[in-house]
Backbone:
């Protein structure tokens, strides 16, 4: 059966509403592991066989009513809760998965020569090296396999449904199920039963693997904006989640500068935050299309950046011009759940997703004379201070398990103190918007 006839239909469903994002691509050497997937991967030949078996699954025999019904019906009952890895890949001890494969005869006596089940990891790229080539688009790796019996086994209809138990410790280093803008990682249990009459009966159950990093101490950062004396102190949670708000505490110091009897000071007029999701992946080439990328073991690197949350604030902080002066405030930020945000992932096959919080402060300069320190005049100068922070986006620990947010931080999470100063990651530019000066005369200055 020519596999290409059905190739297009086998693509994983694609999100209907892709958000616009910046995208770059470049040819590169793919990491050696990207072709082998998760190291436990199967050979190319095996992938091909598996692909053919998938073709059969939706082949003509199922598109038109089959004369010969399947001798058994396969089903599955999962006993274990959904797989949630706790902790980083290097630390997680894994999760026990267990269930029962259910075999229901459709005929008085159904003899199966073998029943094999594979724990599969499917890596899909939306940017295959060769368009419409399924081998370039999808790699399937077997992580584990079960052989339920070695001798042919007969299932009798009079005994009804019979169950074949299975269990496995899912290793904690595996990347979680991920559906990115470029790449996807999916897990499934794929059952293949071979009947004595030559029939092959298949069954597939999707699995969702998730990871939760335990919350640790808050992260304190200080960003400076040379050549000014401005310093921004930011406190963020150690982990945040795809759903739900998180607090950002900000304190800016050094806003007041004495110049003789007069004072120059910065007033915060606007605060913008936004969260960016960065994804990168190396799309491997199948052996047939390896020449397109310059040989075996190479691929094409793709990157995508998109915004998954933002807001603009014009109030909500308090200003103190005394001494060197300070501005202080706390506000909530959140990832936009409708953007279908993904958790951070760093898979051996080259799929990486990370998140960045960008904060922009628009500050306007004022001048107060020694005679009237309470009355200030805007100088017209405005600046944009821009800085960014890494966010750890992870699932909540505590879904169906005894873990909760009160879990004491692990030793590794305790930050070194005091927080170190970082002069990098910041920029200061002139503000070019004109919305700052409209209401400037209504400013209420703290004495
Ligand atoms: Zn190909």
Residues:
């Amino acid at each position: 059966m020519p596999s290409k006839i059905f190739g297009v239909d086998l693509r994983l469903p694609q999100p209907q509403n892709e958000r616009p994002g910046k995208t770059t691509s470049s040819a590169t050497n793919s990491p050696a592991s990207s072709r082998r997937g998760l190291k436990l991967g199967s050979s190319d030949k095996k992938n091909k066989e598996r692909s053919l078996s998938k073709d059969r699954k939706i082949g003509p025999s199922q598109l038109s009513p089959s004369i010969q019904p399947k001798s058994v019906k396969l089903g599955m009952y999962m006993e274990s809760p959904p797989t949630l890895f706790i902790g980083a890949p290097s630390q997680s001890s894994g999760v026990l998965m267990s269930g029962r494969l259910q075999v229901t005869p459709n005929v008085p006596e159904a003899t199966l020569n073998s029943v094999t089940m594979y724990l599969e990891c499917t890596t899909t790229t939306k940017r295959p090296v060769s368009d419409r080539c399924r081998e370039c688009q999808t790699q399937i790796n077997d992580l584990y396999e079960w052989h339920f019996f070695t001798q042919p086994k007969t299932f009798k209809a009079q005994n009804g449904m019979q169950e074949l138990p299975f269990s496995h410790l899912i290793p904690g280093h595996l990347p979680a199920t991920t559906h990115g803008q470029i790449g996807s990682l999916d897990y499934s249990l794929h059952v293949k039963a071979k009947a004595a009459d030559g029939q092959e009966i298949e069954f597939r159950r999707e699995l969702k693997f998730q990871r939760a990093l335990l919350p640790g101490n808050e992260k304190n950062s200080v960003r400076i904006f040379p050549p000014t004396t401005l310093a921004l102190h930011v406190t963020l949670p150690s982990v945040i989640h795809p759903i739900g708000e998180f607090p950002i505490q900000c304190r800016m110091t050094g806003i007041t500068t004495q110049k003789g009897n007069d004072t120059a000071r910065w007033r915060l007029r606007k605060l913008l935050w936004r969260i960016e999701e960065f994804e990168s992946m190396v799309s491997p080439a199948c052996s047939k299309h390896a020449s397109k990328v310059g040989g075996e073991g190479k691929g094409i690197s793709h990157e995508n950046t998109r915004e998954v949350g933002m807001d603009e604030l014009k109030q909500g902080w308090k200003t103190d011009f005394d001494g060197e002066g300070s501005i202080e405030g706390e506000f909530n930020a959140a990832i936009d759940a409708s953007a279908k945000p993904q958790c951070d992932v760093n898979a051996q096959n080259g799929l990486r997703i990370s998140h960045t919080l960008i904060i922009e402060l628009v500050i306007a300069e004022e001048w107060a004379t020694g005679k009237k320190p309470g009355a200030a005049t805007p100088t017209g100068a405005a600046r944009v201070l821009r800085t960014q922070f890494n966010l750890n986006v992870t699932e909540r620990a505590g879904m169906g398990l005894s873990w909760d947010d009160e879990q004491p931080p692990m030793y590794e999470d305790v930050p070194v103190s005091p927080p170190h100063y970082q002069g990098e990651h910041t920029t200061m530019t002139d503000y070019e918007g004109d919305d700052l000066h409209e209401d400037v005369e209504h400013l209420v200055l703290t004495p």
The pocket of zinc ion is lined by residues 130, 133, 135-136, 286, 288-289 (CB under 6 Å). The chain has two domains: 4-20+35-212, 219-442. The mean pLDDT is 80. The domain at 4-20+35-212 is CATH 2.60.40.640 (Immunoglobulin-like).
